[in-house]
Amino acid sequence: MLRKNLFITLLLLAVMVILAACGGGSSEDNKTASGSAESNGDVRTLRISLGLNDQHPLYKGSEKFKELVESQTDSLKVEIYHSGQIADDRSAIEMLQFGTLDITIPSSAPFVSFVPEYGVFDLPFTLTDTEMVDAVLQGEFGETLASKVESQGIVQLAWWENGFRQLTNNSKPINKLEDLDGLKIRVMENETHIASWKALGTNPTPMAFTELFTAMQQKTVDGQENPYPSILLEKYPEVQKYLTETNHVYSPFLFLFSKKVWDELTPEEQEIIRNAAVEAGEYNRELTRQTATESLEELKKQMEFTKISDEELVKFKEAVQPVIDEYKSQIDSEIVDQYLSEIEKHSK
Ligand code: TK8
Question: Where is the chain membrane-spanning (predicted)?
Answer without folding.
Answer: none
